[in-house]
Amino acid sequence: PPSEMGQWKIDSKTNPDLFVDYAWLPPLVQPKKLLVLISGIHGSETYTGAAVLNLFMEEILPQINRNDLGIFMVHAMNPYGFKHHSRCTENNVNLNRNFSVSGDLFKTKNPESKRLTEIFLPRSPVASTRSRLLESLRLDNNTIRFGDISLDQLAKGIGPGQFESAHDFEYGGHAVEPQTQALINQMQKLIPQFQDIIALDLHTGLGDRGRLHLLTD
């Protein structure tokens, strides 16, 4: 079966030239396994994601038996963030908190995120290039703390995202972004054909410098 390359046009108030590129390599014989590779969910991480996709296509793909394996690759899921060196979309949405087929995710309340936003997110011009978060950093009995708040509290409070304010930490939006919906639509077409599915979302910032890591749930 023929491979397919395409684009999803992303509507924008300020940038008429935003697209998400994708490539679909169907199984050569029969569908059984599906591999999904996604890069650039956070726009500024697209450079590394593109490099990993190139590595995959040049060094790994030629060695793969594609008889029963389909491969779907996405480049620059967040083209606005890619263009403007931002993690978020034009609507200040973190796409990693934006995937909800039913829409129930956007009804989630996270008061802890709101509380931490008020503590750590400045609402006035910054007076220093040093992060307020780092200024409050200390080690207490081998526990990392930012003032009286532990790193664990911070991660668990902010990590799940919030869906109320675009001006607060880890905003997941009030509805799916256009590229989120496009990927959901594509997966709804492909997934029913396959028995085994794995999706790898390419990111930076965690793990050792210069090494690829596989982080599971």
Structural summary, described in words:
With 217 residues, the chain is α/β, with parallel strands linked by helices. It contains six helices and eight strands; from the N terminus they run βββαβαααβββααβ. It has helices at residues 46-60, 79-84, 111-120, 132-135, 151-158, 178-190, and strands spanning 4-9, 19-25, 33-39, 69-75, 137-140, 143-146, 149-150, 196-202. It has a five-stranded mixed beta sheet with strand order 1-2-4-3-8, with helices on both faces. The longest helix has 15 residues, at 46-60. The protein is globular, with a radius of gyration of 20 Å.
Helix content: 25-40%
Number of helices: 6
Gross geometry = globular
Major beta sheet summary:
5 strands, mixed
Give the low-confidence spans.
Answer: none
Give the end-to-end Cα distance, rounded to a whole number of Å. Answer: 34 Å
Q: What's the order of the H and E elements? A: EEEHEHHHEEEHHE
Which strand order does the major sheet show?
A: 1-2-4-3-8
- How confident overall, as mean pLDDT? 93
Q: What radius of gyration results from the CA coordinates?
A: 20 Å
Structural class: alpha/beta
What is the number of beta strands?
8
Beta-strand portion reads 15-25%
Descriptive keywords:
alpha/beta; five-stranded mixed beta sheet; three-stranded antiparallel beta sheet; 217 residues
